[in-house]
Write a structure and sequence with these properties.
The complex is a heterodimer.
Chain A lengths: L1 H4 L2 H12 L1 H27 L8 H27 L4 H5 L3 H5 L5 H22 L1 H10 L4 H28 L3 H31 L8 H6 L3 H9 L2 H10 L5 H24 L11
Helix pairs in contact in A: 2-7, 3-4, 3-7, 4-7, 4-8, 4-9, 4-10, 4-12, 7-9, 7-14, 9-10, 9-12, 9-14
Chain B lengths: L1 E10 L2 E11 L4 E5 L6 H8 L7 E6 L2 E2 L4 H7 E4 L11 H11 L4 H14 L15 H12 L6 E5 L7 H16 L3 E5 L3 H7 L2 E6 L2 E7 H8 L3 E7 L3 H10 L3 E6 L6 E6 L3 H13 L4 E6 L4 H8 L7
Parallel strand pairs in B: 3-8, 3-9, 6-7, 7-8
Antiparallel strand pairs in B: 1-2, 1-4, 4-5, 9-10, 11-13, 11-14, 12-13
Helix pairs in contact in B: 3-4, 8-11
The chains are: A mainly alpha, B alpha/beta.
GO cellular component, one term (chain A): plasma membrane
Pfam families (chain A): ABC2_membrane_2
Protein name (chain A): ABC transporter permease
Chain lengths: 281, 312
Amino acid sequence: MKSLWINPVLNKEIKLRFRSFKGFLGVIFYLFALGLVALGFIIVSTMYGQAAIFRPEESRMMFTVLSFVQMVLILFMTPGLTSGAISGERERQTLNILLTTPQSSVTIIISKLVSSISYLLLMMIASLPLYSIVFLFGGVSPSLLISTFCIYLITMIAIASLGVMFSTLIRKTIISTIVTYGVTVFLAGGTAFLTTIIGQLFMYQQYSQSIVPYLTAMFNPFFILLSNFESYLTDEIQRLSGIDFPLMASFIIIYVLISVLAIGISIKKLRPRMKAQKRIG
Amino acid sequence: MIETVNLTKKYGSFTALDSLNLKIEKGTVFGFVGHNGAGKSTTFSILSTLLAPTSGTAYVNGYDVTREPKKVRNHIGYMPDFFGVYDQFKTVEYLDFYGASYGIPKHEREILIPQLLELVNLSHKKNEYVDVLSRGMKQRLCLARSLIHDPEVLILDEPASGLDPRARIEMREILKELKSMGKTILISSHILPELAEMCDEIGVITNGRLVASGSVTSIQNQLKANKIIHVKLTADLEKAIVFFEDEPKISNLSKNDKHDDTITFSYSGTDVEQVELLKKAVSNGLQIISFGQEETDLEDVFLEITKGVDFS
């Protein structure tokens, strides 16, 4: 088990990623974007007040806004970080050599994934001081912060797994990137659109129930994030669909499934299919 | 030891490799000759476990490449014809990464890597980024990488391609050293005379089929069925032409274009018959000062073997 987590491939990935100037720029860009939003929010909310005061309700509001912006940033960065994981090596003509080493497909894929996620985690951790503004003014419990970060992590792993999968299946990084962004846009925007449209359709037919809004909403990280703050939306969706099972739980199950499936496919497709090991006897 | 049995690779209707049967004994340097797209790289990819064959089997040191790919990987050092390096690594780090990938402990790597760099003449570049190395240096670094786990079998796809003459000579010297270390080497190259000098055996592949294989001299002899002979005379050229035209195993007799004192013809006789022919010519009073056979090198062999093969 130890060799799976501390292995040469992961070591190499982390070294190369954190050594490049690009890696540093990524963190700068991330914090700058997030900081701008936080600062903008404080300026706007204190601009029209009598005194320059920042109330706990506003602090909670700011936390919500920051969380959504951070989710957008995660959804924006994860595909870019992962969709070239394998195809990039293939294009740089380093993959063949890597595949002739005894490093297993599992190690290579998991290492690629872990290194991308650790980079995203670094950005998230680097953004924590921004959240301290929120804590300074109150209104948000630590448990809310933890659950929010858990949602990020689950989303991140699923999108990263999809990115690695497409980069294994598709030879060209550019196409793999487009496909990964396409799927991400569908998960983040497409499912929200579908849920809203279908929700509207059924709202006028009080007697009928449909599980469709539930099915589309459980894929949407924004709905899940929102339900973490305010439960009215998910309550409504669950009422409309008549399903008692919590939306959050369905989200976790489905995203974990996506991750497992995508990682499994990547591992299987990294190397050519060989015959099964000869049975002894 | 490398062996392939009816090794075949098809891409749809295109056959890249057609029932290849090869047997390379331990310690042999085997040169693989063929035009681009003949199936050399396909064979190398299968032997390196990067490609699954459509049918047939291949063994490296007795391990089936499709059934025990992990064991095969531990026994081969593979150098592809085109390869990249991780630019952000320093030379030492580059080798260290692959050493670790082969499970070599850190303290052993620290001893091994300077030795390898010494072998490929890169000791002075050990702390440079791989990015700044010249093509020849990268090529040598890649060779050092393929040696890191001390494999018995080396699979080198065009190790000298794209190198300037000096870098090519350096590469050849390193390969000679590896040969003296007793490694089994499977090597492909476009540059045939270089292969001839180094290889114990060569195999010629065209359109996925092995058309000739054996020692360099035996292949040359196979093709020398029709030798080209040049005869230089001091006088009586016309008389000589009349004499040689009457001989049974001579064809395509002509005056040499460049030298008007020389005649050239194809001869299909054996070496013994050739001696008799010369004796007879001299005893017939021909003023021969030179009677020589044209040297054929591997280039000619290759052209002869692949003659009439459709390369399109």
